[in-house]
Amino acid sequence: MCLGLPMTIVETDGITALCEYGDEQRRVSVMLLSGASVGAKVLVHIDTAVRLLEEDEASRISEALDGLEAGLNGEDCDRFFADLVAREPQLPDHLR
Question: Which of 63, 80, 88, 89 is most deeply packed, by most CB within 10 A?
Answer without folding.
Answer: 80
